[in-house]
Amino acid sequence: MKVVVTAALTGVLATREQCPAIPYTPKEIGEEARRAADAGAAIVHIHARTADGGPEWSVETFAEIFGEVRARTDVIVNFSTGAIGIPAEQRIAHIRDLRPEIGALNMGSMNYAIYSRQKKAFYHDHVFANPFKDIQFFLEAMNAAGVRPELECFDTGHIANTAPLIDMGVLEPPYQFSLIMGVLGGIPGTTRHLTNQVETLPEGSHWQVIGIGLKQWPLVAAAITMGGNVRVGLEDNFYIEDGRMAKSNGELVEKAARLAHDLGRDVASVEQARTILCLKPHD
Length: 283
Description:
Blueprint: E1 5-8, H1 26-39, E2 43-46, H2 59-70, E3 76-79, H3 88-98, E4 102-106, E5 110-116, E6 121-128, H4 132-145, E7 148-153, H5 156-160, H6 162-168, E8 176-181, H7 191-200, E9 206-211, H8 216-226, E10 229-232, E11 239-241, E12 244-245, H9 249-262, H10 270-277
Parallel strand pairs: 1-2, 1-10, 2-3, 3-4, 4-7, 7-8, 8-9, 9-10
Antiparallel strand pairs: 5-6, 11-12
Helix pairs in contact: 1-2, 1-9, 2-3, 3-4
């Protein structure tokens, strides 16, 4: 089975002060989508940003991003719905109106923070609340729009949260999971924990690993050898290796593609990824 590579282009917290390659504007995001696709990414995961790097939720901005991406590549588009302090209706409006092939959906609540060992202090210290009523609301909206939910799980309990939604019939196969590892407040980013996560998934699920920071690369290698898919990109990790910052999302995708080749798996094209994941592009 070929490996599907996703590139998470910008995120919502990373800034150009941290990494100069972070794209903000729709045109910049479109260019990064092209670079990622040229390097082998079949999917791009996108958050909208303001011109100065803040989070943005207007449908108009997402539409502009969509247009900039489509002007350059037919890559599969995955728009985020994750946010803190934003009403659920606002978080789903662009999914309803623009109907990307995939919409990211957080599957549970958690403490979310970044800790500085040097300064002995927490940054971005939040409770990331995703109660069942919101998850059900997003799933129903995605189902109505014909958008595949990407089930983002930061811990084992988030995987278990899918069971009642499957029983209700609001979450339908094929199931597409993202196993996010190494976030403070979530599951540690180790191969041992990844193995446990994969064994917990509903039978027949598609899955990819998302490693945070330099933990990304051993987790990418593990996922490739386990038959899973992978996500890389500047949202999750700035570095190709310790001390060597990436100049684009494309450089991170190139490394993931090399790892896949070295470990005996080919990288899926956009059309092959659609077939593997059973996606149907919208007209």
